[in-house]
Amino acid sequence: MKAHKTTLSVRELQKTIGQWKSRKITDSTIAKLLELMLGMTAYMNEDAVYPVENFYDISKALKFKNARYLVEAVRLSGAFGIVPGDNVYGMSSFYSYLWKEKEKTDDSAETLPVTLPVTLPVKLPQGDIYNIYTIQDNKNNTSSGRISSAEKSLEAARNFFHLINKNPMDKMRIFTPLIDGFQQKEGLAREDACANLVYLVNELLVPYFASQERFMKSTHVGRLCWLSNLLKSAGGLRMLKDATDAGRRQRVQNLADMRSEQRNNHPLCEFEWTDKESGLRFYDDPLEGMVNIPDNAPPRPGAGAEWNVLSGKWGEL
Fold first, then answer.
1. How far apart are the first and last CA of the chain?
2. DSSP-assigned letter for residue 143
């Protein structure tokens, strides 16, 4: 594969980076955009474009949070040619002007140096979080009774996983092994393993299938085979790892939030705390750590007071 433009002046590069910074694009994202602009040929097709099928892999290679963040950065930069598409991303591919000549119908950006448009591109909508156990009502998401092709693809992908969950055999064949795998590999409670599955479906699998043009043309049986093969592939294994990592981060955050909430709850006095969920009262002791307080005990009188189990009264440390 041969690049369309093999040289780029320092002045052009500096101007482009300056324009990206004026759009509030962060330094870390600028480095990623430069890699895309200079050319990541492993993720291009024979036409020297980055196709939608590779968006997920590109986002992981460049450490974007997900493919939607990749697409948002490409749009915001204004430095790439964009081929529109009827999918969740609104594009079927994008390309660098260093590798492919600007198409006549492409008004997404100017050749380097980039000329900024009057209005910056709008960020991609994040969409409703889809819970595989309760299908969402999307009537409020329509405009004048019309649904775009991208919304139809997204809804079809959501409904596909909803149908899997409704069918006991499909659920046992596809979802149950995934939950078992999360539970066994991470030593998780069943509830946390299910949360990993929900993230996998909502944030990774639904957007992936909704972005594939052939998804809408596939039968339900064909989609099941597609899903089964995907989960065994390198891309599917990366999705499983991403869901595992996301679940781990969420549990750490939940624990931190719970502890913070505990330390902000002083219903009786400022010298003790009450756990909202259990209703247990407690205070901190420099030697014993967290000490529970009986329900019938009066409020702790001071920061140095300790509970005497024998006398059933507060005493000083």
1. 77
2. B
Q: Which residues are CB-contacts of 8 (< 8 A; sequence separation ≥ 6)?
A: 98, 112
Q: Which are the contacts of 290, defined by CB distance < 8 A and separation ≥ 6?
A: 282, 283, 284
d(CA 211, CA 124): 14
Per-position pLDDT tens, the chain of length 317? 677 777 778 888 888 898 898 888 898 899 999 999 998 988 998 889 999 888 888 988 898 888 888 999 999 998 899 988 877 788 889 999 888 887 655 545 443 443 333 333 333 333 333 344 443 444 444 444 455 777 888 899 999 999 999 888 889 999 999 999 999 988 888 889 999 999 999 999 999 998 888 899 899 999 999 999 999 999 899 999 999 999 999 888 877 777 666 667 777 888 888 887 778 888 888 777 788 889 889 998 888 888 888 888 898 75
Residue 281: beta bridge partners? 274, 293
| Tokens 């119908």, residue located | 105
Strand 289-293's sheet: what is its strand order?
273-274, 281-285, 289-293
Written as six digits, the tokens of 44 are: 């291009």
d(CA 74, CA 97): 13
How many other C-beta atoms can be found within 10 angstroms of the C-beta atom of residue 312?
10
- Rounded-to-integer distance, Cα 293 and Cα 309, Å: 10
Q: Which residues pair with 284 in a beta bridge?
A: 290
Work out the number of other CB atoms within 10 angstroms of the CB of residue 208: 23
- Angle of helix 176-186 versus helix 234-262 axis, rounded to 10: 60
